[in-house]
Amino acid sequence: MVFCAGGLRFALHPVGAEIQRWIDGAGLTLTGQITDEPFIQGDHYAARLKPDTALRGGNEYVVSGDVLIHYPLHLDLGLGDRVQVTGILIDPGVIDTFSYRDYLARFGVYALMRSAAVERVEQGANPGLAGWLTQLRRESRSKIVAALPNPAASLLIGMVLGDESGIAPEIESAFNDTGAAHVIAISGYNMVVFSGLIVWLVGAVASTRRRLGSALGVAVIALYTVLVGGGAGVERAALMSGLVLIGGALRRRTFLPASLAFAAIILSLDNPTVYWDISFQYSFLAVVGMGLFTEPLMRLGTRLLPARWLVEPLAVSAAAQALTIPLAALYFQRLSLVTLPVNLLIAPVLPLVITVGTAAAILTVFISFIGTLLLWAVMPPLLWLIGVVRAAGALPFASISVYPDARLTSLILLFILGLGAASNFSQEWWTHLRGRALQWLALGGGIGLAMLFALLWSSRLDGLLHIWLWDGGSLIQTPGGAHILVDGGRFPARLLTILGDHLPFHKRRIDLWLLTQPDERRYAAVPEALVRYEVGAALYNGQPNLSPAYTRLFEALADVPIVAVRAGYRVEFSDSVQIDVLHPASAPTITDHVDDGALVFGLTHRDGFFLFPSDLSATGQTAMLEHQQVSTVTMLQLPGSGAPFSIDRGWIEVLSPQVVIAVGNPDAALAASFDVPLFIVAPGEVRHLWTDGVTLWVDPD
Q1: What's this model's pTM, rounded to 2 decimal places?
Q2: In terms of CB atoms within 10 Å, which end of the chain has fewer, N or C?
Q3: How do residues 581-640 score in pLDDT, each as one tens digit?
Q4: Assigned CATH class of 465-698
Q5: Between 3.40.390.10, 3.40.50.1010, 3.40.50.150, 2.40.50.140, what CATH number should domain 2-125 receive?
């Protein structure tokens, strides 16, 4: 009967939607409501749209079935907004061996519209408790971004708020390669720590009124689950945590297999495809591993490790990895060779980051001062976590490609499960997680202070000029500590990570920002960076532009002094660094090509002269030489990524650079023609140069 009921529920689950018949390559306009909070996905927003009508050829049709829409970053849309979107519906399809179509279908999304033209029809009304929690999540995210630099801010947001959209691809890749991907999102482990804290607080505060305390604990866990956006792994952990609290109120112990089975059944009632969800499988097996292996590993660790306080977090982390490593190898064809040491190194700080970080994320919205102090307190362990993962991920042997057979993986999982069952122990994991709280607090505080002093020491100035170059922008640090940002690129997460990596962790000011041309690829990421960083002054070439993204940029710069500059304009710093604008000689008009009038500047430091031409066209290069006398260039960044049509060879010969930097993929013939060192900055890379004004060093990697 049970199997029949399960089969009936699965048969009733929709396998498609009416909206799919509109996937025919022709354009249309959909009108509907945004039903989930939009999130950043690379260089655009993604949002779930529930359409009710479709307009094509002047005719309106009633439609059903959710659509995932992509739209520009300059549009500020929210949950509940009613919008009109125009574009072409496409099938999500299959990427390599990953079926994006099936993945979205499990969440009830059956079509995709990229580069949608979106117009808000009606501002969404606050939809009750869910709307209030969504607003709380947004405000908390903004406060964290304002208080902490990236990548620490984006990682903490992912860990405690479930929003991974701000994590830069290179950071996410490092966590994947080191087997620490479970850290960057709300996972079963995170919920175990959070709900363990709730269980402990309920026991401490409401020990005499057990049932009332348990009810409050269940309510807090439920609210937190809605706050972070749910998800199969989170919901399973929340259900199990609720069972523990209810069992405590009824003076009954929770039996792990029964609790897991109950959670899986409840989740499948809502969505029977949850068993195919990788995050659910990963979370499910992680909890099984913790239940089976934590106790034996703790007994082993007690005998081997003199530091007893390290035993518990290391045992929990290793137990969670026991069953998830084979699963990760099967799905992602990657096996991390450093997962055990990395997780052993980060395990001691994870409970501190999750508990203090969660408290800070919520308190910073209501009591900003206390929340900010807690965010600063959690930053040292966050940076330790990021540093360990990055260092391990940079090792050439961090991960290897594997192609395991699914049947072999199943046998390995069964074997590991058998070992755990054979140990036949009773586990007391809630007790372990709440034990030694004062020792953890003292240890965390001591380590945090030590790391804070280390951060302050590492942020000291070295008297050198530093330049970091990447596809879309550059960052300059003068010997005196001023920071100059040139453009920034189109990816907010990447820009914030670069700024977080290279600005002192306590600095929240970009002293000067230069916009070289009104090309969205040059500045799309900047408004997001302005949430955390203030700008002292901004320079641009004065060329007008009517794009919505450009309008949004200047709205974000409303409180910043902005100067339209011409050739001959100079900025002098107190540490012998000066910036001279070399082009354009006059303000470009709205009809001029953006590359012809790009802002070109030279930076002088003692004997060194560094030329930044942006994407200046060959026409602009000729015009620049007509109005400017340029001395020998120490470093030249090639305009236009070194494409052959974008370079005037006569311009190069006049400049006579000693070092050439090509950001992108330069023309092979052009690259071979240089008789001076040429360094290529590939997409996704950041190149570091530094100088004392006499000698120039370039990071070869």
Answers
A1: 0.71
A2: N
A3: 999 999 999 999 999 999 999 999 988 999 999 999 888 888 888 877 777 899 999 887
A4: alpha beta
A5: 2.40.50.140
